[in-house]
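Today's session is about reading a structure prediction critically. Students often jump straight to the picture, but the first step is always the sequence itself: look for stretches that repeat, for charged clusters, for runs of hydrophobic residues. Only then move on to the predicted structure, which in these notes is written as discrete structure tokens rather than atom positions. Here is the chain we will use throughout the hour.
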Amino acid sequence: MTKASTFPNRQGSDSNNRKVYLVDGARTPFLKARGGPGPFTPVDLAVQCGRPLLMRQPFSRDAFDQVILGCVNVIADEMNPSRVAALRLGMGDAMVAFTVQINCGSGMQSIDTAYKYIRQGESDLILAGGAEALSHAPLVMREEAVEWYAGLARAKGPLDTAKQMSGLRPEFFKPVIGLERGLTDPITELNMGQTAEVLAHHFDISREDADQYAVESQHRLATAQEQGWLEGEVEPAFDRDGNVYEKDDGVRPDSSVAKLSELNPVFEKPYGKVTAGNSSQITDGACWVILASEDAVQKHGLEPLAEIRDSEWAGLDPSIMGLGPVMCTTPMMQRNGLAKKDIDLWELNEAFAAQVLACLAAWQDKEFCKNVLGLDKTFGKIGRDRLNVDGGAISLGHPVGTSGSRIVLHLANAMKRLKKKRGIATECIGGGLAGAMLLEVV
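Below is the predicted structure for this chain, in token form.
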């Protein structure tokens, strides 16, 4: 295992750097995919949580400088979903809006891009976020079927057409699920679940530990819903038939280690550690945040939730992509002179329970910290009372283009509720990448 590369972050080197504040945000409920297209497209979702968010602001919708949205599975009818969403939200024909894609990090990339525009003085007010409807992921035709259809289109005359028709095979009518192909790394040819199995092997993560973590995630989200801690963050969504979706519907309050132990491994049978119960759920959802400069805060009388202090991106071997949070968070903390004790809350996206536990184990492994992170001693243990305090993607789902924005928004809200000062949101990214953001409560 070798050291990962990180993108240079030149915060502090430019005299024009300005403070950037997260002043508000909202998301839809995360809706579990159930075997067919859900009630909302990515833009539908973005509009559902965008409308109430913009309605409660003390400025007009065209006051934004630009709109940035993360989305991975863009559907054919919504090319550049950021622009489509901005127009449907009534932000004006002149509103510049673009879409970013960096797999699971797309929602965080949108915030980071907005953060840097404002920090450098190019913008003052930006709407940024993510939207994903994994239930609308396309079905893809097999390559041989595509070739057959192409040959049929090129056929000239009845005889040529009949010859081509003779090559028709029943399997041509069985499409491949595009999401399945999208979640398989083209370099290592491992799907995301298999990369979690690699980490479970490297760091000796047991099946029982993974299941126990998953149960905690379920119970924490259930408690957050019961206590009303997500009110104001989660806005109800209304479909075209008048149905109302008020909360994340993948939560299983009655989850237990005993029940999860009955599930078979999905990716490495029969002895694998990763199951449907201790993995993130395939889900639809959207999330927006509003970022503002100090000038915009003063001009519009805004009350910031938190200041974005720094960000970091890293690259590593795709086969161990789940360790990405360790690789990007550590140098960001070093740059800011922070130790583990200085971080009050962590939001580490729960792609897989084994992946989260592997990150925690890596930070406590002396050889890993020395040889890979370049530390003189172990980073240390992150207490579970500081990590994903209201559950995570295992319990509420992982709409890949949205999760990065959700964990940033929820971190800000959780710090405010719990009266904490400083937090980090971080996630692994398919393809061997990772992102992290450092927030401080104002």
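Discussion point for the tutorial: The first helix runs from residue 42 to 55.
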